[in-house]
Amino acid sequence: MLTLRTFSLTTLGLLTGFAAAAQTAAPTAGPTPTSILSWVVWWMAGVVLLMAVMTGASVTSAAQRRYADQQEPEAAAQPAAPQAPVQAPAPAVAEAALVATREEVYA
Question: DSSP per residue over 76-106, as a string?
Fold first, then answer.
């Protein structure tokens, strides 16, 4: 109940304030001149943005190179597919070959 009341009163107060501000006349003064401080702030913001973009590009490039380096050994470890189709051996022979292959992998 307390949260609902606080939210309602805050919303009503903001709405009343915005409505009152919208009805007041805007000052007729011309545009304010920019100061040296504003130019410095905008220049610093540009430098920070440039550094953020360069850092992101560098991190992305390094991650792509690392991913490619990790993929190369895995591709080299996989045997090449045989060119000619091989006839399937008898089931007992196929099981023996499968066990031998697993033993070679774990050795």
Answer: HHSPPPPSSPPPP--HHHHHHHHHHHHHHHH
